[in-house]
Amino acid sequence: MTSDDSVRPGRSRSIETHSALSPEQTEAVLGLLAEAARTDGQQAVSEQGRLQLRGGEREGVSHLLLTVDGELVGYAQLEDTDPVEPPAAELVVHPSHRGQGHGRALGSALLAASGKRLRVWAHGGHSAARHLAQVLGLTLFRELRQMRRPLSGFELPEPVLPQGVTVRTFVPGQDDAAWLAVNAAAFAHHPEQGALTQRDLDDRKAEPWFDPAGFFLAFRGGELIGFHWTKVHAEEQLGEVYVLGISPDAQGGGLGKALTAIGLRHLAAQGLPTAMLYVDADNTAAVSVYERLGFVTHEADLMYRTET
User: Which of 9, 223, 242, 257 has the fewest beta carbons closer than 10 A?
Assistant: First the structure.
């Protein structure tokens, strides 16, 4: 989420809502996001949101395009797929068009579209986003921390698997259904991760960064009970603990720690200097585990919401 304050006199601002974007509109939005990322130092729209720009209509997802005199200067995405929580949104204004009320206009449109039941991400937690949240009447609800640790020059723990557990890498097509089931169970209370579908998995498998050699599955007998999916951000030279999940009936036995070590060793073997991960700040048990593994907080994404 990025912010601002009123459109310049003599200029015409409009906001259109689409259930799907054309290829031309998609490229224009991606260009806008890239310009904003260069200025802000991080993406204003999450990976899931960027994936949802492509591939046609998706149930519960809307795209808001803000133009001034026909030029795209703002974008917002609204996702209304959670059966309990209010719709979630992300928004961005082109850096050269900030301070003219476009952020407030997009925010107001999102409030109207959601029936004033809204959650909004502010990636990086910038002061301008905090101001916009205040203007829109939103309050801080959630903090997602990005944590990092060096991979070079530090000893990584030897993985110790629970008795009877074996690990192999993901086989696309063969392991999809089993992984989706364990992911849903492990993240049953996590609105973004736990709801991933086959289409979401296929989207990620089609990305240039996808590498099954860094996607580790843990089995007890023939049953999948946990996984560690790593990701490499080649341009930034960052390795990521992308998703780490343990089946509820296999938690508490040290499998998570072992899978974390396996993934970190894989990333270090590729010569990457740094590893990163995301974790909710209120998940104190996970934060403590990662801190013991040498991770420290690098930055935070903040979620704001309407009062309910």
Answer: 9
Q: State the Cα–Cα distance between residues 96 and 4, nearest whole angstrom.
A: 11
Q: Give the contacts of 76 (CB within 8 A, at least 6 positions apart).
A: 63, 64, 66, 89, 90, 91, 92, 106, 107, 109, 110
pLDDT at 65: 98
**Amino acid sitting at position 136:** L
Q: What's the pTM value of the predicted model, to 2 decimals? A: 0.83
Contact (Cβ atoms closer than 8 angstroms) between residue 269 and residue 122: no
Q: Please tell me which of 14-23, 51-60, 182-191 the model is most confident about, judged by mean pLDDT.
A: 14-23
Single out the residue of 30, 13, 12 nearest to residue 21, CA to CA: 30
Do the beta carbons of residue 48 and residue 106 sit within 8 Å?
no
241-276 confidence digits (pLDDT tens): 999 999 999 888 889 989 999 999 999 999 999 999
**What pLDDT was estimated at residue 161?**
94
Residue 200 scores a pLDDT above 80:
yes
Single-letter code of the amino acid located at 26: T
| One-letter amino acid of 151 | L
How large is the average pLDDT for residues 20-47?
94
What are the E-state strand segments in the chain? Answer: 13-18, 61-68, 71-79, 88-93, 119-122, 139-150, 165-169, 215-220, 223-233, 238-246, 274-280, 296-305
Tokens of 82: 């959670």
Q: What is the DSSP string of 97-158?
A: GTTSSHHHHHHHHHHHHTTT--EEEETT--HHHHHHHHHTT-EEEEEEEEEEEE-SSSPPPP
Residue closest to 217 by CA, chosen among 252, 257, 263, 173? 263
Among 150, 137, 123, smallest CA distance to 49 is for 123
